[in-house]
Amino acid sequence: MSNFVCFHAIWNEIKLADGIGLDELAMQERADIVTAFLSEYPFTHFETESGWVKAFADENDIDPSGFSDIEESVSNFIDSYAWSIVERENWNVLWEKNFFSPLLVGQFFVRAPFHEPAPLGRRAITIEPRMSFGTGHHGTTRLMLTALQDLGDAVKEAKVLDMGSGTGILAIAAEMLGASEVLGVEIDDWVVDNANDNLKINQTTQTKMVHGHVKALESVSNGYYDIVLANIHREVLLADMAEYQRVLKLNGNLLLSGLREEDVPMILEKAQRHNLDLQQTQIIEGWVMMMFENK
Q1: CA-closest candidate to residue 127, choices 195, 52, 211
Q2: I want to staple 139 with a disulfide (CB 3.0 to 4.6 A). Which of 72, 240, 266, 284 is the partner?
Q3: Same domain membership, residue 230 and residue 163
């Protein structure tokens, strides 16, 4: 089993105009810019803070001869960088030592296998994330979990598509809310294995995970899904929105996240071109979820 290559991009603190304190907005914008550039390469997982970004890729997907191109792509935005190898086995140990605390999102209690059971009256979603994105703690995942619950009865008996499924947390939630059929699509084959393990842990029966990207939808007929979920990078959402709309039923719902507040105008403009009507916008810590209806 291969390991992961980690590219650690670091930049100096950005001060406020008066030189007193840090410009946190500018620091976060820098993180967004660096992440966007690195997204053009085979990195599949990102950790971001205001002063650094860590990007991870399967070591088989990035040849060391291409390291210099990656370094050059972000050279104008960072002050230093480092490459390292992260062993998959060590990643699991790291999660067990530093895992998130259980999280309550509406009726869902998101936990790891080694956490306490869900409180009475709450639905447990048990996630063993390993290297995958989606524990519920990132603002985008919390927004999507909340929006799914806000749909209420619309999820019952629905056919749901979850693009960029990661750990499978949203797909699992959709089935728990009553969806009759759920398809998760994930570009990283090892992440698919992780998600399939989570499907088993949560005893799902109506959810399937496949390895691929938007081309996995080529065999799907027009207007097949009642709900489409996509919690991915802005560039992917813009590039693939037409296909999301194609497979979505008339009056069906498209939920998009992985967005920052500054991304809203371009997402809205692209959505309107595809007859997608904005129903609601939710924001947590600068992260945005946009819900559309297919008109």
Answers
A1: 195
A2: 284
A3: yes
Query: How many angstroms separate the CA atoms of 277 and 295, rounded?
Result: 7
Domains in the chain, number: 2
Could you tell me the pTM of the whole model? 0.72
Look at residues 238, 167, 194, 188 and name the one whose alpha carbon lies nearest to residue 42.
188
Task: Give buried/exposed letters for 7-25 (b at 16+ CB in 10 A, else e).
Answer: bebebeebeeeeeeeeeee
The two structure tokens encoding residue 229 = 């979920």
Strands (E) in 99-224, as ranges, are 103-105, 108-111, 123-126, 159-163, 181-186, 207-211
Tens-place pLDDT, residues 240-295: 999 999 999 999 999 999 898 889 999 999 999 999 999 999 998 888 999 999 99
Looking at the DSSP bridge assignments, the partners of residue 220 are none
The boundaries of the domain holding residue 252 are: 134-294
Whether 202 is in a domain gets the answer yes
106 found inside a domain: no
